Structure prediction request, 586 residues.
Amino acid sequence: MTVASRPISQRIAVLPSAVADQIAAGEVVERPSSVVKELFENALDAGATVIDMAIEDGGRQSIRISDDGSGMSREDAVLSLERHATSKIHSAQDLVGVRSFGFRGEALAAICSVSHLEVETALEDGAGTLVRAAGGSVVDVTSIARRRGTTIRVSRLFYNAPARLKFLRGARSEWRAILDVVGGMALTRRDVRVSITHDGKPILTLPPASSLRERLAAVYGGEFAGRLLDVDDLLGTTHVSGLVERPADAGTATRRVFISVNGRSVRDLGLVRAAESAYRSTIPAGVRPTLFLDVVVAADMVDVNVHPAKAEVRFRDRWPIERVVENAVRRALGNFEAGATFGRTAWPTPAPPVAPAVVDVEALSGETSTPDDGLFERDQHESAPAAIAAATAPPVADVPPLVQLRRTYLMFEHEHGVVLIDQHSAHERVLFEQFMRTIDCGEQPAQRLLFPMTLHLGPAEAEAFERNRDLFERLGFEIEGFGGHTLLVRAVPMPHPRFDPERCLRETLASITGDRESGSHTRHERLAATVACKAAIKAGDALSPGEMRALYVALRDTTLPAHDVHGRATIVQLTWDEIDRRFGRR
Ligand SMILES: Nc1ncnc2c1ncn2[C@@H]1O[C@H](COP(=O)(O)OP(=O)(O)OP(=O)(O)O)[C@@H](O)[C@H]1O
Ligand SMILES: [Mg+2]
Prediction:
């Protein structure tokens, strides 16, 4: 009976269960990769330690997956193909904090309703069962001999659902999607041995791995894995660990993102954004870093039951979790080790902060002071309270001897090798963090000018100034309009004695002209970054020994010392290992 011919009082009909299964199948089984995901999860839930997959024609012809898990009895094997047949939960209450991947008892029924499906299974080595089904109905059940575990073969996917069949992509594209899923699962469950073949060719063979780095090396190669930085932070009951890309590497190769929550690979834009925001000010807006993160939260903090394929999760309170993720990644990037490196090395943990006494570096080192030694030191005069972190000059013992090369780089020797610092990038990083603090706290370390200076601007520059007037004021500029596009500058910040306020202001305005809100950077960050870039010492500036030491300490005290605000490295290390190798000593 068609809808049109039905009496008006009878519009609603309960769908035959085969149709209901097919509709459910649309949600759970979109394409071959979703079949692989469901079958892989079932194998994991069954306690498998070895999972082997064989895929034909991008999964369009057939998908076979074998495990050494618990296996099923004859009755269960038949039941498993029925809708809402699950061994994993028994009541709604079990849904809270569910630990298994499956719990709806829907996947096998859904897959079976749109394919030819065979289940071969045995509880023990020896006597087992083979169930053959097609289009949701069991065709026959026979006894077979096999090892403990289960093999499921899905062939002719969507043979009876032409509308879906039409939406399948080419074999290559479906195969890529399968590899993505398998890669994700293999990263979540590193203890399991995984192998996969495509059209008979072995593609991946992953032995059990003891760490994420080891598994990544097996999947993507050792060089890729070796370049990533460790993340590991615990706050309250939230644990964030994993590996992330160095800012200097971001955007140079294919970007990969993997996030797991309580051992389940998920897509969660919020967590990805939180991790990315840790990179702010280290990479240009629009460049996205590679991330592999495992997030573990208390089981009752998260609901995995919100997405048909369980690819998304819902947090009871996501904000604190995102903060932990951001902080964990930021801490990983904040390490000196995050800098570019030749060869691998471990940077020593930074020395504990020096007591904030005003120590006379020159007196301690016995060096004579030159007039511009004060580049990074606290100006004692009220008029210029230009404190930067380096104001707390360190005892000399805390700073290695530094040499300036080409008036551009500072070089020093270190337990693990030779280190070069780019003086401009480093100073830019120092000033950026200082300006961000100034903007956030609203202090105004301004110096009044005896003779106000006038600046004549073009219309676009004047407009850029007006748009950012509040921020310039927070940074310590006191500026009045003076008719037309002329500005009268009465006070300026004095971040260091070589600072040239007029030039900095002009260059900053020129470079933010026509600037639009972009990417992840806030207006504050963009202005602070631009002013820092213009205010920082340049390549070519000769530095005194005192200035070099102060820069070293100021840089060490920043939160992200290894990168300037454009994502370039401030520090490059050449390890002894590498040097020895080049001289043929090892
Ligand atoms: N590889 C396997 N080894 C052992 N038992 C299995 C295997 N695959 C499925 N089963 C059994 O079949 C049942 C049904 O599987 P199915 O995937 O349809 O549902 P589920 O995993 O319980 O829930 P979901 O629909 O959320 O995946 C499972 O609960 C499990 O008992
Ligand atoms: Mg399942």
Notes: The longest helix spans residues 423-441. The pocket of adenosine-5'-triphosphate (ligand 1) is lined by residues 38, 42-43, 45-46, 67, 69-72, 80, 85-88, 102-109, 150 (CB under 6 Å). The chain has a mean pLDDT of 82. DSSP finds 17 helices and 23 strands in the chain.
